[in-house]
Amino acid sequence: MMNVSGELCWLACLILTVDLTLGLGPYKDMEFTFLLSAGSTECFYQTTARNDSIEVEYQVIAGSGLDVGFVLVSPGGYRLASDFRRSDAVHMVDPTEDGDYRLCFDNSFSKLSEKLVFFEVIVNRQSSSARGGQNEWAEVAMPESMVEYKLEDIRVRLDSVHQHLEKSRQVLTVLRTLEARDRYLLEDNLWRVSFWSCLNVCVMLTVAVTQVYTLRRLFDVTTRVRT
Prior knowledge:
Elements: H1 4-14, E1 30-36, E2 41-48, E3 53-62, E4 68-73, E5 79-86, E6 88-93, E7 99-106, E8 115-124, H2 132-140, H3 151-226
Antiparallel strand pairs: 1-8, 2-7, 3-6, 3-8, 4-5, 4-7
């Protein structure tokens, strides 16, 4: 059987990680899978603007107990959400402040088992900086365009397609994470079932051999007494 560290690293390779740094990209959605060592705490940062909204979802894919602690801290230092030994959760902040939100995952209560954790940060941009691109489109669309298509209509349709694609990508990412988590549980349960089955078979064989040996010895003793 593979050791726990090998299994967790193998599962981490199955899941696509978009960023490999501890600092998350500003004003953009992010999915990240990382290995949380035993007895340690890892923190990540997400930059947001005022009046935006962010949604944080995390899941423990592998590791003993499938649980971690989680804390979401605002740029002002206020604790907005706190979980203790949970396998998954979803938290939303609306509206947000200017600055960096801190996302901390805690595994200090487990001294032996490391955890494979997946989390996703979705930033819904409502600030003026996010609308800057739309204003540029509007300014370009002010003059009458050639043919009968309006640039504004094209922009609206492209935005709709982009939103649907992003939502589909997020759903597929979550499903892929759940699949990896289920695979880990199945493999772990399969090993346990196989181990105990083999142990029971060995015990049964030992008992059978002992009984046969005891009966043969009993008949041998009886024969000697008669003679």
